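Handout, page 2. Input:
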Amino acid sequence: MDRPDPSPRAVALSYDTNDGAPRVVAKGRGLLAEEIIERARAAGVFVHESPDLVNLLMQVDLDERIPPELYVAVAELLAWLYRLEHAAQGAEAGLLANAPSGLLPK
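Output:
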């Protein structure tokens, strides 16, 4: 019986509204996966852990759009990220609105 590969895996997606569907822009296992994750976090990109989705996305060639079979799963993830980002922006705006005037950026 085959044992699952314990090395980390990572897939990076990019979405441009002109593309029609997200593209796989980076993917890898082991040290390459760790580097993809580290660079994403350093750039402030959210890292979502979903082994099942990563396994499916690893099958997509680099610079290719995700297949229609993955649209719903990726759309749900993007919608969740959108809500998360806007909630964070709203919280930041609330913090600034309640900050003493000397602390507000000019």
